[in-house]
């Protein structure tokens, strides 16, 4: 059984196919059709809902794509959909702002925008403070085909600039009490007889159930796994939902490492990584959308072994390690050894990623990362590049260079590194290293980019890295224009 | 009859009478559905309450671009529990073809398939997932035939869906031969997926009369009504189409909505059960047509000032496998291959290439944008050739007011506003200063380069199939003074219902709150034209105005009779009526008129005057008037990756006397961003088998919030009524602003051209994806290097 609040109403679901998404649940089971399906792949945001959860003693509201969220993820949480915002016949201030600013035309994307604005308003720093950067971030995962976005941004400004206490504020204590009452205390199971989803609460429990069900699919944020159901029409007979395991959600900063629990949502990884590596932070802000980052995890981005995952090239260049757990035993593996071939990893049956360990920055190392895609926000990289260079007295003492989108796996550029290592850090060396990249990679042509473009961009990104370090006053990034 | 009519004193009514109506025409009234949009209460077809026995339909699509169907066996479909029926072309009771203008679009493939995505069988089951699973279980065997995927290949083979057509004025060959300078070039222009947020959807209920009630997301209710009747083999009067709202249309629901509606109707007919068909996004993108990609070849002759002497343009539209609307779409591309410019002696050839792709269809601009991109590319090329600022060349070639003012299809360009608008925009956008600043920035910035472009839009308003320029409306005034309004247009987000209600509010001088618009319905207003060609308000607003005026005239005559005054003494204002020196409220008048046995209901009708066109001569006045616009865009380009960012766009757009400035600005901004998306990041990619690889929003990228210009300044031209007698002298606004996006594409090319000192035109096809931009950069770098090693100026005239 899983339990959650459908806004204020306590729902206990016992017999429900765990392959059911929150979107289907709302529309088909609860008749709440305000939430729309635009793509069922987490790319348009029309289905955006807000989930409230307890963090310590406080409520935290975050957006997610209901089309990619399996129902088990709601266990112990509060689901708020667009119908819940109107109170006693009056529009919520974010809804009123959208009306006032002419923010809806066809209206189909609107409920999703309203929910993103609602979460934005809830998470805005001080009362009546509008941060355009935060608004852009909140809305980057919502597509509107009609307005061109200007009126929606204006609505964001109005909604954040004139924040009034709402019914959710008024009921905060009540909601907290309700959520405390349903806080998971033991491993939950949702099944419809044939299909099951288990939600262990501890690493030990997970290790146990996974060992017993090595064919189960691990469900973390589900932003990739759910596509198998919604896009590829497969059925997932057994899932183990790891999102309830608090100890796997921690982000800890030690002296020499940042240790990130595999289930920590990317949103929660941002602060630690961005503080250490500004380019990592910049990349994370362009990593999918806020809805996805609120759900998706670093462990999942590694675990699904996509050749175009955005975090692995950066983590590989930084020399990150994964801690793999199986039963009671665990092992540590450099991330670069985790990826073996297209969608093939070193992970054994019943083994799971428990943590990711990222070395902290040191003053003698230069870290740069670049993502190149057709669209700036919420797009998959054609090329993703990461350079971690130790330059001592003008000589490259140690180079770690990794790319995504250039091979079947995220991969280090061995020949490029070899050319750089021990050579003076100058244009000549960089040009030689660019040449070596052609030995390292034979990229593919697909709808994102041609092989020729990928290779040239990979080389140009190394040139850019050099230029940024060598002539720091030169403008090199269009993303600096905001 | 209400017993609660507010009683006001004569003084109070007289005071109200002196005030202006706050929700009439010209006011920024909010979209009538906005409060419902934001609360999730607005009902779309997929949100309708379902019947327990409703069937869900899934169409199995061809996975071959061109093949003969050897065998179809639907028996395995029935092995899936929950399946009601699986049908093939043979099961259609009436006519199989649902081609909009000409045949060529079978509802289900009949003996052969002609594109990947073509519906072959349809299966109905108790859920969409079951229907899909069952449809995939069917056995379909094909024998492959040779497909044609590439438009240039089709052009060379003269593989056309319709005959080619030409617009000719003067002796273009002679003008080219004698022009001081001459350039030739070619360009590919990409298509565009509509990406309406709501995919195609229909839901159908059988009626006791053997007919159907069809709830469907369509821009063209009458067409769906006709096609549903035809596939069932029943008269049109058995079929009712109900269309409350679309979650976006953009042309994609002009003809493409009919397929799902017809499949629903056929299966409802065969099973006696209500049906629904909603296309999942991938199926929608694979099955339905898009904006036509075009391939363009040109040959232009001009002088040292950049003035065109003659031109020949070949526009080859990639129509996909069937004619659909391609005849008119390629015509409109031809009509707009002049954009704002007098071409001199011109030959414009339009070709309708047949390829084994989904049948390309209407999309905002309807071919016009492709024609305009072609001529704007030519303007840039001419300017680079001469080392001039492209804006100078553009202005040099603008249509004149009294001479050089006749198009290549012999329509005189009247009331041309572009010269003044360009001057105003040049000043307000600070064009000259920024041009200098950008040159300085580029000289100092080795990696990032800025570009600037100011481009005009002149867009012809009217359906070029002249008979479509008609509309109907129906207005009822009830005895309590509330008003019910219907018209033949459809609401897809553009605010049509709001504008038409404003028109009726203005005529009756009542508040818009008093007016209820309900779903567009074929049993209220029959024989409607599609809501397309930007014509929704022009046509339906006029028809509704006509209906309202008919009723108003009856009221005036009644009042004159009843109160023994002249008709001129009866005046409506702000919900009140003056009867010479006496005042009553609007609802009081309505009550009295009802008791006086006056008909309070009327239809209205409108047809556009003045237009005519003889296609056999390619001469006439196809457009009632032109809408104008201009945009000045600045971008910044990364010359190491080809990425770019839109920095600033200034827009000045002409909507005549705006009926609703807020809604019009919404159309201008939304159209502009959609246009810039088309020309930048929105790339359709098919593989060599004809399979669309960009079949979802993960792979096909429409603009997101960060893609709007960081600084966007939009202004409507003020105090310029439409000189033609349009509805309250407004102008159409749906399509024209789309082409303002061309300024962004030109600005990107301008940034890249800076790498070779603005002396060469980079070959950057549309869309200008980062990859294409980077290849343009590489091309410029090679030219620059060649220039450095040459003693003479780098770019010679390429005769």
Automatic annotation (TrEMBL), chain A:
2Fe-2S ferredoxin-type domain residues: 1-85
Sequence ranges assigned to domain FAD-binding PCMH-type in this UniProt record: 190-363
One Pfam family it belongs to: FAD_binding_5
E.C. numbers: 1.17.1.4
Gene3D superfamilies: 3.10.20.30, 3.30.465.10, [2Fe-2S]-binding domain, CO dehydrogenase flavoprotein, C-terminal domain, Uridine Diphospho-n-acetylenolpyruvylglucosamine Reductase, domain 2
Entry keyword set: FAD, Flavoprotein, Iron, Metal-binding, Oxidoreductase
Entry's Gene Ontology molecular function annotations: xanthine dehydrogenase activity
InterPro entries tied to this protein: 2Fe-2S-bd, 2Fe-2S-bd_dom_sf, 2Fe-2S_ferredoxin-like_sf, 2Fe-2S_ferredoxin-type, 2Fe2S_fd_BS, Ald_Oxase/xanthine_DH-like, Beta-grasp_dom_sf, CO_DH_flav_C
The protein's name in its UniProt record: Xanthine dehydrogenase small subunit
Source species: Pseudomonas songnenensis
Automatic annotation (TrEMBL), chain B:
Top-rank taxon, per record: Bacteria
Annotated segments matching region Disordered: 521-541
Pfam families in UniProt: Ald_Xan_dh_C, MoCoBD_1, MoCoBD_2
Domain Aldehyde oxidase/xanthine dehydrogenase a/b hammerhead: from-to ranges: 39-146
Enzyme class: oxidoreductase
Annotated EC: 1.17.1.4
An example molecular function term from Gene Ontology annotations: xanthine dehydrogenase activity
Keyword list, A-Z: Molybdenum, Oxidoreductase
Polar residues: compositionally biased ranges: 521-538
Record bears the keyword Repeat: no
Family per record: Belongs to the xanthine dehydrogenase family.
PANTHER family recorded: ALDEHYDE OXIDASE 1-RELATED, XANTHINE DEHYDROGENASE
NCBIfam families registered for this protein in UniProt: xanthine_xdhB
Name the record gives this protein: Xanthine dehydrogenase molybdopterin binding subunit
Lineage: Bacteria, Pseudomonadati, Pseudomonadota, Gammaproteobacteria, Pseudomonadales
């Amino acid at each position: 059984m899983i339990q959650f609040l459908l806004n204020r109403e306590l729902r206990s679901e016992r017999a429900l196919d765990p392959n059911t998404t929150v979107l289907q649940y709302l529309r088909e089971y609860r008749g709440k059709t305000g939430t729309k399906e635009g793509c069922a792949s987490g790319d348009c945001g029309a289905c955006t809902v807000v989930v409230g959860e307890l963090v310590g003693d406080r409520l935290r509201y975050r957006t997610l794509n209901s089309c990619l969220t399996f129902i088990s993820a709601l266990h112990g949480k509060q689901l708020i959909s667009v119908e819940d915002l109107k109170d006693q016949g009056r529009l919520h201030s974010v809804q009123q702002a959208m009306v006032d600013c002419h923010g809806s035309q066809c209206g189909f994307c609107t409920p999703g925008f309203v929910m993103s604005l609602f979460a934005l308003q809830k998470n805005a720093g001080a009362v009546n403070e509008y941060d355009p950067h935060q608004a852009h971030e909140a809305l980057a995962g919502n597509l509107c085909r009609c307005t061109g976005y200007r009126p929606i941004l204006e609505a964001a400004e109005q909604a954040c600039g004139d924040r009034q206490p709402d019914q959710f504020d008024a009921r905060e204590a009540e909601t907290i009490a309700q959520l405390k009452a349903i806080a998971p205390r033991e491993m939950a199971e949702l099944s419809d007889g044939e299909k099951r989803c288990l939600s262990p609460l501890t690493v030990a429990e997970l290790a146990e159930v996974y060992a017993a069900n090595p064919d189960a699919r691990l469900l973390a944020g589900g932003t990739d796994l759910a596509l198998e159901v919604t896009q590829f029409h497969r059925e997932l007979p057994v899932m183990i939902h790891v999102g309830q395991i608090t100890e796997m959600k921690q982000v800890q900063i030690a002296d020499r490492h940042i240790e990130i629990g595999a289930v920590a949502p990317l949103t929660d990884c941002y602060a630690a990584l961005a503080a250490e590596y500004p380019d990592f932070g910049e990349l994370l802000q362009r990593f999918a959308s806020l809805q996805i980052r609120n759900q998706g995890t670093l462990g999942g981005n590694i675990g699904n072994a996509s050749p175009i995952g955005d975090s692995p090239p950066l983590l590989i260049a930084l020399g990150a390690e994964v801690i793999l757990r199986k039963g009671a035993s665990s092992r540590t593996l450099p991330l670069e050894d985790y990826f073996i071939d297209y969608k093939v990893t070193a992970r054994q049956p019943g083994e799971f990623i428990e943590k990711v360990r990222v070395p902290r920055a040191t003053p003698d190392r230069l870290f740069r990362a670049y993502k190149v895609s057709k669209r700036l926000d919420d797009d998959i990289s054609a090329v993703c590049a990461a350079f971690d260079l130790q330059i001592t007295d003008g000589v490259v003492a140690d180079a770690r260079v990794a790319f995504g989108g250039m091979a079947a796996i995220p991969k280090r550029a061995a020949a490029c590194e070899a050319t750089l290592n021990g050579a003076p850090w100058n244009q000549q060396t960089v040009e030689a290293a660019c040449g070596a990249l052609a030995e390292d990679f034979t990229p593919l042509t697909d709808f994102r980019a041609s092989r020729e473009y990928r290779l040239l961009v990979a080389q140009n990104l190394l040139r850019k890295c050099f230029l940024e370090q060598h002539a720091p006053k030169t403008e090199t990034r269009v993303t600096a224009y905001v | 009859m209400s017993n609660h009519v507010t009683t006001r004193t004569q003084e109070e009514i007289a005071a109200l009478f002196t005030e202006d109506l706050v929700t009439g025409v010209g006011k920024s009234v909010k979209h009538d559905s906005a409060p419902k949009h934001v609360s999730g209460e607005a009902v779309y077809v997929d949100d309708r309450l379902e019947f327990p026995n409703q069937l869900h339909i899934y169409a199995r699509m061809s996975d071959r671009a061109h093949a003969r169907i050897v065998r179809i066996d639907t028996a395995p479909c029935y092995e899936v529990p929950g399946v009601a029926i699986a049908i093939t072309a043979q099961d259609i009771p009436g006519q199989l073809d649902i081609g909009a203008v000409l045949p060529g679009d079978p509802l289900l493939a009949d003996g052969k398939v002609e594109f990947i995505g073509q519906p072959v069988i349809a299966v109905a089951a108790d859920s969409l997932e079951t229907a899909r699973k069952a449809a995939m279980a069917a056995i379909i065997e094909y024998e492959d035939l040779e497909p044609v995927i590439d438009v240039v290949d089709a052009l060379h083979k003269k593989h056309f869906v319709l005959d080619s057509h030409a617009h000719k004025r003067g002796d273009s060959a002679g003008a080219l031969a004698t022009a001081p300078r001459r350039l030739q070039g070619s360009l590919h222009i990409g298509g565009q997926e509509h990406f309406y947020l709501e995919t195609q959807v229909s839901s159908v209920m059988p009626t006791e009369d053997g007919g159907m009630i069809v709830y469907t997301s369509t821009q063209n209710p009458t067409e769906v009504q006709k096609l549903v009747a035809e596939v069932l083999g029943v008269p049109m009067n058995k079929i009712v189409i109900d269309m409350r709202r679309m979650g976006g249309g953009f042309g994609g629901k002009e003809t493409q909505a009919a397929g799902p509606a017809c499949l629903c109707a056929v299966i409802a007919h065969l099973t006696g059960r209500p049906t629904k068909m909603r296309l999942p996004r991938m199926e929608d993108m694979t099955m339905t047509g898009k904006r036509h990609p075009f391939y363009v070849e040109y040959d232009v002759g001009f002088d040292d000032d950049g003035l065109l002497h003659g031109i020949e343009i070949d526009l080859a539209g990639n129509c996909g496998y069937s004619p659909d609307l391609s005849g008119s779409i390629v015509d409109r591309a031809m009509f707009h291959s002049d954009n704002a410019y007098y071409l001199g002696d011109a030959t414009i050839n339009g070709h309708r290439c047949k390829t084994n792709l989904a049948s390309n269809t209407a999309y905002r601009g309807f071919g016009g944008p492709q024609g305009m991109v072609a001529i704007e590319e030519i303007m840039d090329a001419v300017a680079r050739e001469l080392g001039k600022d492209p804006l100078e060349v553009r202005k040099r070639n603008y249509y004149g007011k009294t001479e050089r003012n006749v198009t290549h299809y012999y329509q005189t360009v009247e009331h041309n506003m572009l010269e003044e608008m360009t001057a105003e925009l040049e000043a307000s956008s600070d064009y000259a200063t920024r041009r200098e600043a950008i040159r300085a920035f580029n000289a100092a910035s080795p990696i990032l380069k800025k570009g600037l472009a100011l481009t005009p839009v002149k867009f012809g308003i009217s359906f070029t199939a002249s008979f479509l320029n008609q509309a109907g409306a129906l207005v009822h005034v009830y005895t309590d003074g509330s008003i019910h309004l219907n018209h033949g247009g459809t609401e897809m987000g553009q605010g049509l219902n709001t504008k038409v209600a404003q028109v009726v509010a203005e005529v009756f001088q009542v508040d818009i709150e008093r007016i209820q618009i309900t779903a567009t319905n074929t049993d209220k207003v029959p024989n409607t034209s599609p809501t397309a060609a930007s014509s929704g308000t022009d046509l339906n607003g006029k028809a509704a105005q006509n209906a309202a005026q008919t009723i108003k005239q009856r009221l005036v005559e009644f009042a004159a009779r009843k109160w023994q005054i002249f008709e001129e003494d009866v005046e409506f204002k702000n919900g009140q009526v003056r009867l010479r020196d006496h005042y009553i409220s609007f609802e009081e008048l309505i009550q009295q008129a009802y008791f006086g046995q006056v008909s309070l209901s009327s239809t209205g009708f409108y047809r556009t005057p003045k237009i005519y066109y003889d296609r056999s001569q390619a001469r006439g006045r196809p457009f009632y008037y032109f809408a104008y616009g201009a945009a000045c865009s600045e971008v910044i380009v990364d010359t190491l990756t080809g990425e770019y960012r839109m920095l600033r766009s200034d827009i000045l757009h002409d909507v005549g006397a705006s009926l609703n400035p807020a809604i019009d600005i919404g159309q201008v901004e939304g159209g502009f961003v959609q246009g810039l998306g088309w020309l930048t990041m929105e790339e359709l990619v098919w593989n060599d088998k004809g399979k669309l690889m960009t079949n979802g929003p993960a792979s096909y990228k429409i603009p997101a919030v960060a893609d709007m210009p960081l600084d966007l300044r939009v202004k409507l031209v003020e105090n310029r009524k439409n000189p033609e007698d349009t509805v309250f002298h407004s102008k159409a606004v749906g399509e024209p602003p789309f082409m303002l996006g061309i300024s962004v594409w030109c600005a990107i090319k301008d940034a890249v051209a800076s790498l070779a000192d603005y002396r060469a035109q980079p070959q950057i096809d549309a869309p200008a994806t980062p990859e294409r931009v980077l290849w343009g950069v590489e091309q410029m770098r090679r030219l620059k290097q060649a220039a450095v090693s040459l003693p003479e100026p780098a770019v010679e005239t390429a005769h």
